[in-house]
Amino acid sequence: MTSKNKINEDLANERRKCNFNIEEVTYILDGGKEKTLQRKKIEDVALNGGASVDDIPEEYLSARERYENAIRKSCIYTNIVKNEVLEITGIENYGSPVLRRTGDAFFKDISPFMLHLGMFVPSIIGQCTAEQQATWLPRALDMKIIGAYAQTELGHGTFIRGLETTATYDPETEEFVLHSPTITSYKWWAGGLGRTANHCTVVAQLYTQGKCHGTHLFIVQIRDLETHMPLPGVKVGEIGPRMGFNTADNGFLGFNNYRIPRMNMMMKNAQVLKDGTYVKAARHGKLTYGTMVFVRVTLVGEASFNLAKAVTIAVRYSAVRRQSELRPGSIEPQILDYPTQQHKLFICIATAHAFQLTASWLWNTFTAVQAEMKKGNVDTLPELHALSSCLKALSTSDATAYIEQCRFACGGHGYMLSSNLPFLYAFVVATRTYEGDYTVLLLQTARFLVKAWEQAESGKVVTPTVAYLNRHFTTNGKMIWDNSPEGIIRVFQSVAAGKISLCVRSIRNRITSGMDHEDAWLMTTVQLVNAAEAHCRSVILHTYWNEIVRLTKHSSDNVKTVLNQLVMLYLTYWALERTGDLLRYSTISENDIDLLQRQYEELLVKIRPNAVGLVDAFDIRDEILQSTLGSYDGRVYERLMEEVQKNPLNKEPVDPSFHKYLKPLMKSKI
Ligand SMILES: CCCCCCCCCCCCCCCCCCCCCCC/C=C/C(=O)SCCNC(=O)CCNC(=O)[C@H](O)C(C)(C)COP(=O)(O)OP(=O)(O)OC[C@H]1O[C@@H](n2cnc3c(N)ncnc32)[C@H](O)[C@@H]1OP(=O)(O)O
Ligand SMILES: Cc1cc2nc3c(=O)[nH]c(=O)nc-3n(C[C@H](O)[C@H](O)[C@H](O)COP(=O)(O)OP(=O)(O)OC[C@H]3O[C@@H](n4cnc5c(N)ncnc54)[C@H](O)[C@@H]3O)c2cc1C
């Protein structure tokens, strides 16, 4: 709770109705009581200065004012983090998602420092040797240098091998010469690059001794540290207004034979020696893509957090908002009482839980794979790549759709920027594209699935996340429908196995009828995306259920009950969404589907009294929510009115345009 105002009576009633211990659920979502306490401590220190409050809301500012304001607040926040938060929590908390999320109290949109922290620093950690890290990391962590991640070009984002920027080694001077040979080779999109960064990670085609060795990463200084002027040979600027990310100064960058020292190549996975000899660390061809894998992993948690924000706003608002009448003359119901509203919102609560628990599980998988790679074992990397790709794709896509659903659930007021829902949508919809487009990433997962299918077909035991493929070859016919959580999960795995099997059959049939492998694959990609989506859905369902069982073992009865209701709602919702698939791949009958529908509607009724408690359990402070509709105290109408007072258009009773344009128009003769 963050508000000291009187609580709206409807919300107060909702909280009285809640029958479970809210803190217990918060601890589960945060990963334990210690983590919750640590988070609260960080939030207390970082937010108690009230630095986040803008006199004029940022949406009223011009592009230049907005950017300057974002820089001002980024510096305030950075100083708080450096001087106060990390003092208490220790430097190891530097990259903590808690810091990133607390930062949302300062920005409705995004900090221009985000890419420095989210990708430049991780690229130094993941792609540099220990010696290089010693040179760059302390300066970057201390914000002595500010970086961006410049990979995408005007002509290519998805197809990294097609990037055109070149880095040609010159052994005479022991330097790389960076060059942008075409208009399409200009770097485009990098966050923080346009106005803020003085350094960046540049991804370029490495040439040495006359041979191209593919894309590699380089640390490049682009601006003078004193004057901030672009250095000679560097052309840099901002790309222009966007749907969101408007305070992130996404930029363009071109080089004209611009020289950097040899040691500015990030050399953890490959090196160029002084004489120009190329030495490859022969472990895995795609280790230079590591920063993207890291960010994809973190984005699953981001999807959960942003959805949790949206549904907190929408559920609280739905408890306060009253509309229509159920019977003539009766009191108007809270809109949260409409089953259709519950149908829109409770799946969002469940999805935020599913993604949060999946994100933690994925993070553990990521760190385990990292540990193996440190020992030289890269065997688990393909599975991590397949998992992080599809989980990034689905979590960002679902979060986008559900945030929009939360906005719809708030009617007209949800369309106001002050609700924060449009900002959340514009921010999250970009995650479906950046760091790997939705379709492209699912096709990466599909490659892995087809290979796993072939292994299972030849009798090999496959890795745990696709172990259901082994079962597919030992069972005959359709999966027996079973309404238990485990039963539903098994059926979803059978759907995935069935779809992968169809893809393999299609590819083989096409090859048999004369197509080459590439065309056969291409013609099957619609099915492959579908199969990868089904696989990923089964992974999420399985992980969510397993984690709830594990994490609620010692919970109080009511917490166990409500979290079980949510996970059952999630399983049932997806079963109903996919009845076509279930009819095709399992023995489910029409009667079973009717039962599922009834079970779903009963779950809505059961969850209803705890809905506000459930969003309170996300424990997102008002400063972070930044919403007129979603604050803890439910003073929705008062806040909407207060916001009107901040509108510069209301400063004067008569707008100057009246005298300039309207009046002459009104006076003019036809
Ligand atoms: C003191 C100061 C304190 C300040 C206080 C502030 C505190 C806050 C601190 C908090 C910080 C926390 C940070 C959290 C951050 C969270 C939010 C971050 C927000 C970030 C915003 C990001 C903005 C966006 C950035 C970008 O978009 S960057 C650009 C991203 N680009 C892409 O993703 C491109 C997508 N394309 C690809 O990945 C590839 O091209 C491709 C995979 C599609 C194809 O590649 P390629 O053609 O080379 O490969 P093939 O298809 O031929 O496949 C060959 C085989 O290689 C395998 N493969 C492919 N990729 C990988 C991989 N990555 N890993 C492993 N293997 C891989 C394929 O599977 C193939 O294998 P096979 O042959 O066996 O099948
Ligand atoms: C807000 C935002 C911030 C960004 N920040 C950064 C940054 O900091 N640094 C950076 O380097 N980049 C950044 N990017 C760029 C981002 O990574 C790319 O836009 C993204 O990877 C998609 O690539 P693209 O734009 O080339 O899309 P395209 O690849 O051109 O995609 C267009 C369409 O073609 C389809 N398509 C493409 N290839 C295939 C294929 N092989 N099979 C089937 N369909 C295909 C896609 O599915 C999509 O529908 C950012 C982008 C945005 C929107």
- Residue stretches low in confidence (pLDDT < 50, at least 5 long) are none
CATH class of the largest domain: Mainly Alpha
Fraction of residues in helix:
40-55%
> How many domain units?
2
Q: What this model shows, in words?
A:
The protein is α+β, with helices and mostly antiparallel strands. It has 2 domains: 1-30 and 288-634, Butyryl-CoA Dehydrogenase, subunit A, domain 3, CATH 1.20.140; 115-282, Butyryl-CoA Dehydrogenase, subunit A, domain 2. Helix content is 54%, strand content 9%. It is built from 23 helices and 11 strands. It has helices at 9-17, 22-30, 33-47, 63-89, 97-102, 114-127, 130-141, 290-320, 339-374, 381-409, 421-431, 438-457, 468-472, 485-512, 517-523, 525-551, 557-577, 579-585, 590-607, 611-616, 622-625, 636-645, 656-667; strands spanning 147-150, 166-170, 175-179, 187-190, 199-208, 211-221, 234-238, 251-255, 258-261, 270-272, 278-280. The strands form 3 sheets. Strands 1, 2, 3, 5, 6 and 9 form a 6-stranded mixed beta sheet that branches. A hairpin with a 5-residue loop joins strand 10 and strand 11. The chain is globular and about 90 Å long. The chain starts with 8 loop residues before the first helix and ends with a helix. The mean pLDDT is 95.
Question: What's the arrangement of secondary structure elements?
Answer:
Elements: H1 9-17, H2 22-30, H3 33-47, H4 63-89, H5 97-102, H6 114-127, H7 130-141, E1 147-150, E2 166-170, E3 175-179, E4 187-190, E5 199-208, E6 211-221, E7 234-238, E8 251-255, E9 258-261, E10 270-272, E11 278-280, H8 290-320, H9 339-374, H10 381-409, H11 421-431, H12 438-457, H13 468-472, H14 485-512, H15 517-523, H16 525-551, H17 557-577, H18 579-585, H19 590-607, H20 611-616, H21 622-625, H22 636-645, H23 656-667
Parallel strand pairs: 1-5, 2-5
Antiparallel strand pairs: 2-3, 3-9, 4-8, 5-6, 7-8, 10-11
Helix pairs in contact: 2-3, 3-4, 6-7, 6-8, 8-9, 8-10, 8-11, 9-10, 9-16, 9-17, 9-19, 10-11, 10-12, 10-16, 12-14, 12-16, 14-15, 14-16, 14-17, 14-18, 16-17, 17-19
Bound molecules: ligand LY3KDABY and flavin-adenine dinucleotide (FAD).
Ligand LY3KDABY binds next to helix 4, helix 5, helix 6, helix 8 and helix 10.
Keywords: FAD, Fatty acid metabolism, Flavoprotein, Lipid metabolism, Oxidoreductase, Peroxisome
Binding site for FAD: 152, 191
Domain Acyl-CoA oxidase C-alpha1: 289-450
